[in-house]
Every structure is written in structure tokens, then in C-alpha cells.
User: Which sequence fits this backbone?
């Protein structure tokens, strides 16, 4: 099976400190990977390194069998960063305009929107329950509404790899459920590979097929079921949470 992500011996530094050490793993197409680990264990740094947003001190990364340095097909990748923070009310773009940006990476010049692109934007706004907000300036919306618009932007180009870093922190429980149902559906029906950084154990238990437990280096990498009964799992989540997560079916 082709690997969507191949990471070999990645080292990342922040100042003089190594925040990732010798991180290696390979994600097959269609996997739903839950990335967990304590605060400051390097999860966000890892996803940013995979996207080339922070430099590596050592190691190699390939996306879709292409070394990161040569990778140009960014329309295949949807990314929702952690903590974008609220946008100021004067941010000069409507929700629809922000979501459209998600389609532009896949277009050559001139970057014109086609009729089907407009339909796709409408469709994704509808899926995330924000169709009625399309014409509003994004900076005037609540944190949760802004987050949904940014999710729509990450989803609109139907990416083959979706990287979500604590995506639902600002969402209320009902919308959060809908969001994970949508991502789970993309994973199952279109084989979209998902990488999800989260502290939300319920979500991990429901959706993840593989686990990456990180604390500067990879402490566990493997199938969810194997993780479920591992000492690493008990050490990180405790026995009570382990019981809740592992009895998901
Ligand atoms: N922009 C930055 N400049 C300097 N150090 C940073 C920066 N971002 C992160 N770090 C440091 O890198 C380490 C890993 O941080 P990172 O955000 O990757 O962890 P995390 O596992 O995602 O944490 P959390 O669960 O709290 O979101 C931490 O020690 C953090 O202080």
C-alpha cells in the first residue's frame, strides 16, 4: 500500500532544545491516525514539520511518495492549524471568500472559479451549517463560527490528506459531533487519510484506526486495538479512560 506520509528520523529544534527526536512513522492511505501526547510533547511541531512549516534539523519526510522539498500538490492536503486565534472584525474577507481560498491551490493561472467551484463552496458551507453566513465578514463571527469556516476551507478541495490540530476546541458539542461525523465519513467513503491531534479521548475511541503516542519521540505507533491494551495507553490515559476508550463498540 502506498504511504501518504513517510517520516524518517525527524529531529526538530526550538532554540537549543530538541522538541522532536528521531521520529519515524509511515501512514498508509486511508488511515485515521490519532496523535496524542502530553502538553508540549511536540504534536503541533510534528504536523507543522510534515507540512514544511517548521524546519527540520535532521531526517526526511515524503508526502504521497514525493520528498517534501519537491512536493507541490498542496491541493491534496487540507490543514486546520491549532489556535489560529480570533480574526479581527476588520479582516477584509467574507466567509465564502475564505472558503474559496481552499480551492485555489489546485488551480493553475489564471485562477478562475468555475461554476462547479461555486457549487462546491456552497455545498461545504451547507455541510458545516454555515451557508447562511457566507456573505458575512469572517472577523465579525463568533470563535466557533470562524472555526467552522476554516474547517470548510480545509475540506473544500476534497483533500486526500486531512491534518487537523485540535480542530474542535471552539465548537459546541452538537457541532463537534457533526464535524467528526463528516470527517469520519470522508475517511470511510473516499479513503481520505486523516491525521488528528487531539486530547479528546472520546473522538479517538470512536474514530482512530491507528495511534501515534508522542513525547518528543514516538512512544507508541500502531493499530488502535493494540494501543488500547498497551502499557503506554494505561500510563497516558489512566485505567478509567482506558476502559471508556477501549469499549467503543
Ligand atoms: N514558536 C515556538 N517557539 C519556541 N518554542 C516553541 C514554539 N512552539 C512550540 N515550542 C516549544 O516546542 C515544544 C513542543 O510544542 P508543541 O506545540 O509542538 O507541543 P504540543 O504537543 O502540540 O502541545 P499542546 O498539547 O500543549 O498543544 C514545547 O516545549 C514548546 O514550548
Assistant:
Amino acid at each position: 500500500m502506498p504511504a501518504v506520509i513517510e517520516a524518517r528520523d525527524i529531529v526538530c529544534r526550538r532554540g537549543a532544545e530538541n522538541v522532536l527526536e528521531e521520529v519515524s512513522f509511515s501512514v498508509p492511505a486511508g488511515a485515521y491516525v490519532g496523535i496524542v501526547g502530553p502538553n508540549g510533547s511536540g504534536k503541533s511541531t510534528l504536523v507543522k514539520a510534515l507540512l514544511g512549516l517548521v524546519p527540520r534539523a535532521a531526517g526526511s519526510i515524503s508526502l504521497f511518495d514525493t520528498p517534501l522539498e519537491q512536493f507541490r500538490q498542496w491541493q491534496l492536503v487540507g490543514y486546520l492549524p491549532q489556535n489560529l486565534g480570533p480574526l479581527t472584525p476588520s479582516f477584509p474577507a467574507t466567509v465564502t471568500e475564505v472558503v474559496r481560498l481552499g480551492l485555489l491551490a489546485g488551480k493553475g493561472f489564471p485562477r478562475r472559479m468555475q461554476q462547479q467551484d461555486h457549487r462546491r463552496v456552497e455545498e461545504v458551507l451547507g455541510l458545516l451549517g454555515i451557508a447562511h453566513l457566507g456573505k458575512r465578514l469572517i472577523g465579525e463571527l463568533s470563535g466557533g463560527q470562524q472555526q467552522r469556516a476554516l474547517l470548510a476551507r480545509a475540506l473544500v478541495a476534497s483533500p486526500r490528506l486531512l491534518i487537523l490540530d485540535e480542530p474542535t476546541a471552539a465548537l459546541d458539542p452538537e457541532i463537534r459531533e457533526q464535524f467528526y461525523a463528516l470527517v469520519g465519513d470522508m475517511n470511510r467513503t473516499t479513503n481520505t487519510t486523516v491525521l488528528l491531534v487531539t486530547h479528546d479521548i472520546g473522538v479517538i475511541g470512536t474514530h482512530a484506526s491507528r495511534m501515534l503516542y508522542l513525547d518528543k519521540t514516538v512512544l507508541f505507533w500502531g493499530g488502535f486495538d493494540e494501543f488500547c491494551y498497551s502499557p503506554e495507553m494505561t500510563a497516558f490515559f489512566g485505567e478509567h479512560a482506558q476502559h471508556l476508550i477501549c469499549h467503543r463498540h
